[in-house]
Amino acid sequence: MTDHRTILHIDMNAFFASVEQSANPELRGKPVAVVGGHGRTVITTSSYEARAKGVKTGMAIWEGKRACPELIIVVGDNRKYTYTSTKINDIFHTYTPTVEAFSIDESWLDVTHSLSIFGSAENIAYLIKARIRHLFGITCSIGVAPNKLLAKLASDMQKPDGLTVIRPENVSRILEQMPIKELCGIGKKMQRHLNMMSIYTCGELGRCDAARLTRKFGIIGTRLKEMGRGIDNVPVVSFGKEDDVKSVGHSSTLERDIDNPAEIRRFILQLSEMVGNRARRYNVSGKTIHLYVRYADFFSSWGKQTTLKNYINLSDEIYLAALGILATVELEQPVRLLGISLSNLKHQAEQLPLFEDERKKRFATQAMDRINDRFGRMSVTFGSLLPGKEKAGSHVIPPSWRPDGVKNIDVQ
DNA sequence: TCTGGGGTCCTAGGACCC
DNA sequence: TCTGGGGTCCTAGGACCC
Hints:
Blueprint: E1 7-12, H1 15-23, E2 32-35, E3 43-46, H2 48-52, H3 61-67, E4 72-75, H4 78-93, E5 99-103, E6 106-110, H5 115-118, H6 121-136, E7 140-145, H7 148-155, E8 163-165, H8 171-176, H9 188-196, H10 202-207, H11 210-217, H12 220-228, E9 247-258, H13 261-282, E10 284-295, E11 301-312, H14 315-326, E12 335-347, H15 356-375
Parallel strand pairs: 2-4, 7-8
Antiparallel strand pairs: 1-6, 1-7, 2-3, 5-6, 9-12, 10-11, 10-12
Helix pairs in contact: 4-6, 11-12, 13-14
The chain binds a DNA duplex through helix 9, strand 9, strand 11 and strand 12.
């Protein structure tokens, strides 16, 4: 299907750092790095001034300082980013109802049916950029194209504060010399494989024999060739029409490596509480629990999962399942990171448990969740957590957070 | 004082059932 | 007693995205 859609991809420039610079004039024009508040943190986002000096996302603080000694370290503040992201999302919705949040700082808009009202996609892009700059003092890069793949590619072509339009008649010219790694979906490994087949540009990928790609990559081969030609029919899926959420998980690098079993169990309980709290807020329960451990040497790790007969979402049930997994292994090193996730999810129909003690437990859990929602994570928790004052990892939300928050889930 | 945290999707192989 | 094959569920692990 050759469609005639018009898609915008909007990418907030250095989002967390820009929000900080906007909130604090002393940071403007200076190299700033946003980091997590606790534990062995890394740089989540850095300002363009810092990037110019070689500061990159994922660097440890000391690495960032080595690249740029005058680097200003700012501990991230979730509330600022979620608030700003939500408000920006509101702006998008004044131009089209079809808005898909790819992450906290990236969205696609299908404006095909808005063009008659607002004139042109470029006009919409200008209006959006002006409003975001006016309201929040930050910039974004916008790509306009006939599909999501090309719109995302376009928004990457001019940063910061760019506006790039890829018209259907220019697609093949633009892709001819474009390195394949610029395409969303082609990572390091795929790039290496394609390079070994002497494929370096999108043009070459698009002309490659489909059978050759399919032999090498299986079913993905066909898709790769399409990507090389700039073909992408994936629709923009707005909030409320997405697929069900598939898993809920938390992981945390510990402040220091630990090998004390009681301490490990304490962190597992804490993570179980975080996972359970979120699952209950999403109103889902799951029957597969996954425990992930990374050892002190950073490189060795393992993950084990177990599937239960029943769907669960209470913190202590998750905790017990995770402990069950832990009991099947012998730890080889001190532990650096622990993670728990709940998958195999289903929407939980609201019904009161039959037995009095179960009802009491449900109410107690709901009360605890409400307090935590209001006053922040882990304001109240199970007693066994109280003696330790150590808390798991970073409080800075990941860029994968979506302003829509809870996804829509069909009741089954 | 090296190297975060949240996800999705895909594949391969084994167990088990019909 | 011997045989093939399809389907589903499960675990483990990897690639990719932000």
